[in-house]
Amino acid sequence: MTGFGVLGHIILGDLRERTRRYSFIWIMLATTFFGYLVISGKYGMTFPGFLLAPNSAWVGSHMAIFCTLMLALIGFYVIRNTIERDRRTGVGQIIAATPLNQLTYLLAKFVSSFLVLTGCTVILVSAAILLQVTGGQMRSFHFGALLTPFLVITVPVLLMVAGAAVFFETARWLRGTFGNILYFFFIEVLVIQGIAADAPAIDLIGAHAITSGIEEAILAVAPGTSVAVQVGALGLFDTGSAIAPTPLTWPGIDWTMGLALPRLGYAAVGVAMMMPAAAFFDRFDPSRIKRRRPGKRKKTGVVPDSPGRSLTRRTADISLAPVTVGFRLTALILSELRVMLKGYHWSWYVVALGLPIAQIAAPYDIARTYLLPAALIWPLPLWSALGTRDRRYGTQSLMTSSPHPMIRQLSSAWLGGLIISTALCSGMAIKAMLAGQFIQAAAVAAGAIFVPTTALMLGAVTGSRKFFEVSYFMVWYIGLVNRHWALDFIGTTDQALSRGVPWVFLAVTCILLAVAVLTERTRLQVS
Amino acid sequence: MHLHMENLGKRYKGDIWGLRNFSLDLGPGVLGLVGPNGAGKSTLMRMLATVTKPTEGSATWNGTDIARSPNPVRTVLGYLPQDFGVYPHLNAVEFLTYLGAARGIVGRDARRRILQLLELVNLTETRKRPLGSFSGGMKQRVGIAQALLNDPGLLIVDEPTAGLDPEERVRFRGLLAELGGDRIVILSSHVISDIEAAATSIVIVNQGRLVTWAQPEELLRTVEDKVWETTVASSDLTVMKQRYLISNTTRTSEGVRVRVVDDRMPDSGAHRLTPTLEDAYLYALRESRNGVAA
Questions:
Q1: I need a surface site. Which of A104, A301, A411, B261 has the fewest CB within 10 A?
Q2: Angle at B112 between CA B107 and CA B115, to 5 degrees
Q3: What is the ipTM of this complex?
Q4: pLDDT of residue A235
Q5: What is the pLDDT of residues B187-239, one digit of tens each?
Q6: Which residue in B has a C-alpha nearest to residue A412's C-alpha?
Q7: Which helix (DSSP H) or strand (DSSP E) does residue A248 occupy?
Q8: In chain A, positions 356-395, which contact chain B (CB-CB < 8 Å)?
Q9: Nearest one of A44, A260, A248, A245 to A149, comparing CA atoms
Q10: What average pLDDT is seen over chain A?
Q11: Would you call A309 and B77 a contact, using CB atoms and an 8 Å cutoff?
Q12: Which domains can be identified in chain B, with CATH numbers?
């Protein structure tokens, strides 16, 4: 078989495995829903005072921007599991024993990841066509004008995202929570800087190219106008202006080499990432993973077995102590905490212990604005394991066959997560109480309950830690770092406290807990 | 101590039955469960371990339906699944402590029991190493230890000797035989010698149905005077395989020595052999297939 034949078969096999999973249906449904939001005008870009004609250029460009944004942000987390699946299922070890070279293997993973993202894009292109057709714009329908923004803006980014997903899976230090966060930051910076700066090289989602094109069109019909762009979700940013907007027909972007070449750069970066990926890839060899920690000799390689005992020694020689069965929640919680806390670098524990102490020692505003948010992101990998650990490590049947699996394990996992969040925020809670800020202290308590509950619910429902990691990180970033009152679930701003945001989150927490219980109950009953 | 199964059945998606019309009545002793891949052994064990629910029929532990009220049996259950995972960052003591806590086994008794179990499965010296660094056989022994944590009245072990070295395999078979004295042990294995060494009764399962349930002696009687040995030319082996049930072949300088299980003498040069449980198992399977085909 030729090299291309091998590549084709691996891509096909990988695609079949991905597309036959239930999660794929959910991804497609979510993409369709997103397309609907943009089509229906519930999410998108508006130019106050002007109404753009829904011709192919505008509809295609508009959809392409948000398609690119969604797939660059969410798509990465969707496709980033293919090598991990081979590792977990043991297929990787079989592949490792074949003559297949790692670059071909990674290239196949790269192409299949790209094709999954392309599948989502096809849905959104179809949605854009539907918008034009149902909007009575058949006369202005021009397939080329509609498709070009997807080809020029979206496709290169998809290649970059696919390359990044493979690279982040091969580099060990990027595989976990750290990689998830790092990628989010990277994309976020590119998107924000790309919109703001007049630099096509960093205009990841093509928003600047399109908005400046429209700005030119607006200035052509209304010279001297101060053009504003609003990106809105679900009418949150509706200006409510009573003045009828001026109709505007935008002919689309004139794709010059200066605009198109940087897009090719994204594609090239995606493909080029296969080289470092191949260098980092351990080819499923566990010894290659462990070689990077030379100081930890105790953990390297497979430990030698104990020397065999003489067969003449009967098992009856070892008398087993009788056991008394009596459930104690505290014992289970302690064991749960041990499972949660084991396996991190010593520096992690130092920071975790230091945060509540620093909250007490630091000035009130510093503790509230910086140290409290830090305490609510530091244990992210611990929380994201809640509700997913048994599936991840294959211990479900051991746990399910224990008495009262739902109530005991769910409660111990939840309480374990709660103890960690409470411990890390305790400094701020004590400080607030000492300062007589009892509402702030209560808000901290509400936030400490909210985080592990959300983690447990999302873990139980999705079976994956990624969903919680990404969605919680977004909430944390917007609410606690950017201090947007609507998502400030722990009251780091006076605005959030005065509007009662933490109490809203506390109410949501109760619902989330109920969902977690129901999900686990259903899972145990269905099996 | 009584485990009863009445018309137990499990249907999977696509209207595929993993097990059907399975009835059995068990008291203390070791039940060996044998059958080809996909016969329904693991499905049965998962249902008895309350990991999965039967689609039809019922199983009762001391009169209590285990699907409706699983907790009474879970309290006395030790279960070693065919495939199971461990938490790689915990050591054996910590992992067993965690599973013990989930089963309500805590305190000093639990600690002592865990150390004794680790001694029993020969993991004392490596008990403080993270499980992620254990070999497959060592993880399997951790699995065996966790199944014995609560001194189970019902012990269900699915392919327990997979990955064990011959020495450990012999020890474990002996342990199972001892445990079967005053509790119900259900042991599934593809290795007939494991079953032979430990089981007090044997169930053969094929295509989701119970084929035979008998004591080892009874099974052996079914092939009495039906096991033959003869030597044939290599070129005749294919024809021989088509005509007879062959349980073993050995190459010799005179041709291929074959072990035949059949009612008829395969050729005039054949002589009778003492039957083994493997002969009886293969014979029962063939009879069951012929019965289904008929």
A1: A301
A2: 125
A3: 0.77
A4: 41
A5: 998 888 889 888 999 999 999 999 999 999 999 999 999 999 999 998 889 99
A6: B102
A7: strand A246-248
A8: 389, 393-395
A9: A260
A10: 85
A11: no
A12: 3-214 (3.40.50.300), 221-293 (no CATH)
